Amino acid sequence: MVKPLKIELDELPLDEKFESKGVYADKIATYQLDLLRMQRVLMESNHSVVLVFEGPDAAGKGGCIRRITEKLDPRTVRVYSVVKPTPEEYAHHYLWRFWNKLPKRGEICIFDRSWYGRVLVERVEKFAQEEEWQRAYSEINALEKMLTDDGTIIIKFYLHISKDEQLRRFRAREADPYKHWKINDEDWRNRRKWKLHNEAAEEMFRQTHTACAPWHVVGTNYKWFARTSVARTVVARLHEFFE
Question: Is 2 within the bounds of a domain?
């Protein structure tokens, strides 16, 4: 029985960094090559991999996902960016829209936001009633236990930044015509509820940090460090499973 994960996000260390970009480049290249090797092992197995990424807006989920996937064989990797449900999806149980996105044996699926939206943004914005998001903890744990019992490897990341760093990234996106699409009114609205979002995430860790699918909380104020930390964690988990 794994102990509940108790993390105060406002106290999370966020200042880790590399001495230079060269150190980062060497490390990420090593991890990417190892990931490619492990992908070949996975493809010949009866297992699949699900990576889950959660965290505040501008925490660097897309950048970490890109470094995980950019050297892999794209034929057996799928990335899903989860947005608000369609009318058809909304008419079903909230987990329904994720089921047909789960990977086949030998494949990898990455969720940029996931079923944890029920206990994060849907809780904070009151899109789900309290009895619904409270019930979701056991529903999610049951889903992940069922998947891992069937051979799926689930690796969950929560990427976190400081409020000041988020503001800096928001302003940089607004000023960059190539990144302006990344910022909208919803991002600013979520920022105004920073404390509520942190409280929801902290309870999520306590309720859904399980032996079969533990959380990995990564500080991402320094992007280079965060990207290598995520890649290293994925590599280590795959080696642990297959060796």
Answer: no
